[in-house]
Write a structure and sequence with these properties.
The chain contains twelve helices and twelve strands. By secondary structure, it is an alpha/beta fold. The chain is globular and about 55 Å long. The relative contact order is 0.17. The protein binds phosphoric acid mono(formamide)ester (CP). Phosphoric acid mono(formamide)ester (CP) binds next to α2.
């Protein structure tokens, strides 16, 4: 594997899941694979889980790790071609990327959506520049539209905790004070469509996700109906994806607290497990009682980020030329 941003990059999903569970039982089995190889993790945005879990995964594989926080200590980067660079940006990404590629064997990139121009974000402009100009394998650590390491970790968690052979999984929008990208719900939807689950998405009207990610999922605007019989409830906020009205792209259309997941919402489910990628705004997205309750999986999900990253890096290292 040379690039990782979507579920199909892994090939057969069942094999990848099996490999993840094997690695979880012996996470240092491939410690020789990354000897004298260097991972560069490039962050344009903040992170707790991705930073720590991906670094730990690289250490499991014996790699060296360099972390670059672009906004803390590096030159301020211009990302647009054709700009006259007479402002505060001292270096262009088109030089910076190949330079970064000189010092490493593999690159992970975190670059969130700007939520101003849908075409720019959905073209994955920054991530694809790393693919094109770094000369290195590149993987997504949450880009403008996808967060595959999170979705893979979520799927591993569902596999571990499911009680039915084919569980019902519900992705529900929940309120948040700020405009957030669609990367997490996009990837979650993409991966659930590829998994052996019954998948339902629920959100207020206007929050329709891109059809490329919705796939065959059932979309139900009545949150209570959607949650009925759910085995897993995955809550997440996202800003307007601009599918039904492009002018609304990146806007907060609703802060309706009736969508906050509380004990009453969970009582409509099949004693569902609660899931969220974290970080989470308590008592906006989910109440204290639910996130602290016995069916909450938020910590196991975070723990599985180490496992998903170990599988992805292992596969990239195996194919290094
Ligand atoms: N879930 C997740 O990616 O967390 P961070 O933003 O802290 O990395």
């Amino acid at each position: 594997m040379r690039y990782f941003s979507k579920v199909t990059d892994l090939g057969d999903l069942q094999s990848a899941l099996q490999e993840a569970l094997e690695i979880k039982n012996n996470r240092f089995k491939y410690v020789e694979l990354g000897k004298n190889k260097t991972l560069l993790m490039v962050f344009f945005n903040s992170s707790l889980r991705t930073r720590l879990s991906t670094q730990k995964a690289a250490m499991n594989l014996g790699m060296n790790v360099i972390v670059l926080d672009v906004n803390q200590g590096a030159w301020k980067l211009e990302t647009e071609r054709g700009v006259i660079m007479d402002g505060d940006k001292s270096e262009h990404l088109l030089e910076a990327i190949p330079v970064m590629g000189c010092y490493c064997d593999v690159i992970g990139v975190r670059s969130f959506a700007r939520l101003k121009d849908r075409d720019y974000d959905y073209a994955e402009t920054v991530f694809n520049q790393f693919v094109k100009y770094s000369g290195r394998p590149v993987f997504a650590m949450e880009t403008a539209t996808v967060h595959p390491l999170q979705a893979f970790a979520d799927l591993i968690t569902i596999e571990e905790y499911k009680e039915a052979k084919r569980p019902k999984v519900v992705l529900t929008w929940a309120p948040h004070p700020k405009a957030l990208p669609q990367a997490v719900p996009n990837s979650f939807a993409e991966w659930m469509n590829a998994a052996d689950v019954d998948f339902v998405i629920t959100h207020p009207e206007g929050y329709e996700l891109d059809p490329a990610f919705v796939g065959d999922a059932v979309v139900e605007y009545d949150q209570r109906k959607a949650l009925e019989g759910a085995d897993f409830v995955y809550a997440k906020n996202w800003s307007c994806p601009g599918v039904t009205n492009l002018a609304d792209y990146g806007q907060v259309l609703s802060k309706d607290m009736k969508w906050t997941i509380d004990e009453e919402h969970m009582s409509w489910t099949n004693d569902a497990h609660f899931m969220h990628c974290l970080p989470v705004r308590r008592n906006m997205i989910v109440t204290d009682d639910v996130i602290e309750g016995p069916r909450s999986l938020v910590i196991p999900e975070a723990a599985n980020r180490e496992i998903s990253a170990t599988v992805v890096l292992k596969r990239i290292l195996e194919d290094l030329k």
